[in-house]
Amino acid sequence: MDTASDRLEPAVVSRLMWRLMPFLFLLYIVAYLDRINMSFAVLQMRGDLGLSERAIGRAGGMFFAGYFFFQLPSNLVLEKFGVRRWISGLMVIWGVISCLMIFVRGPVSFYGMRFLLGAAEAGFFPGMILYMKRWFPASARARAVAWFMTANPLAGIVGSPISGALLGLTGKGLSGWQWMFLVEGMPAILLGVTVYWTLSDSPKEASWLKGEERAWLLDRLAREQQAESAISKGGFWDVLVSPRIWLLSVVYFGVSTTMYGVTLWLPSVIQSLSGLGNFATGLIAVIPFLATAIAMVLVGMHSDRSGERRWHTAIPAFAGAIALVAAGYGRSTVVVVAGVGLGLVGAESMVGPFWAMATSRMSGLSAAAGIAVINSLANLGGYYGPDIVGFFRKLNGGFRGGLLAIGATLALSGGIALIVGRRPVAADEK
Fold first, then answer.
1. How many angstroms separate the CA atoms of 178 and 104, rounded?
2. How far is Cα 127 from Cα 372, in angstroms, rounded to an integer?
3. What are the structural domains, with CATH classification, of the chain?
């Protein structure tokens, strides 16, 4: 039986990777592109609409205000109605909202549309984490999450030059930034319709799994769920007051702060230091995203092979914090862009090991609630990161203060990861 299990595990995991991950990956590229493309849009919007640096930072953060308030309800609805129907509907809605960004006329409408986009996207990421938990055994979960999360930097790799090029479009009474929002919002609508006919809600419904493979996977997942249920028997309200959940939220807060604080302002950093045009700025912005994609996969794979999560989460955090401090004090374009890029590499390399560590003691409804609570609280960092850079930009016109604040937040996340990851099973909150 052990021999059969040893033989089936790599075959099943490989089949899951090839069958599920490319499509989930594509969905997340589209989701992430729709939330970060404003980093290029503001290169024109600040002049066309008279937006201040603080207003731009606040608009970037308003996405996460909507994200925060709607994430937990959205994930609980997903638990009731299933991934296929709920994610399909969310993608169509946020695609339409992204297209409607062409009607932004000033700070207030900018804030409102970003809030609505965040509310619509709120259920997507935690829903995908929950979905992967229900398909991938624990031994492959960090790898799966890392591959999935490489959509973040890949969206930057693909989207940066495209967004920069779209800013050059004019016609039909629309500016370049309006064409960019319209064109880049359409894929979410089309893929949202496709999700309904493509995804299966659980391995039981997957006709593409062979008989013995399906039986092995269902048995493995059932045994893992049983073990996790024995560890954490708390209900919905226990999740909300769990110290472990709040500590995990602090860890991921640093990831979100860096991820979105850096991503929103990266084109502005490059352009202000180099004086390049929009398309050339987009090409340079590809470099940090490419390095991030490679590092995320390597760290996730190494974490799975070793079975270690705590240090695989903390070390990238500390390395990223150091890089951001170096960028804050850098004087040349190369040093600043490299430091900011390595800060992004460190933060995003944490996500695979982090989610494997975070979900290892969750099951059932508490898993849906726990993932949503962590992600919703932590993604307030998506408000804090862009806004703190905008605050210091308005204060003194530079990026140093914002980068140092983000670096300190990321270092704190690494320290908390070492604490929460070390906690013994017996000490978990009931």
1. 9
2. 8
3. 2-427 (1.20.1250.20)
Can you count the helices (H) and strands (E) in the chain? 19, 0
One pLDDT digit (tens) per residue for the chain, 430 residues? 455 566 788 888 888 989 898 999 899 899 988 888 888 899 899 999 999 888 988 888 898 888 888 877 887 787 778 778 888 999 999 999 999 999 999 999 999 999 999 999 988 887 888 888 889 888 887 778 778 878 878 888 888 888 888 998 888 889 999 999 999 999 999 999 999 888 888 888 888 888 888 888 998 888 877 766 654 555 556 667 778 889 999 999 999 999 888 887 888 888 877 778 888 888 888 888 888 888 988 998 898 888 888 899 999 999 999 999 999 888 787 888 899 989 999 999 998 899 888 877 665 556 667 777 887 788 888 888 888 888 888 777 678 888 999 999 999 999 999 998 775 544 344 3
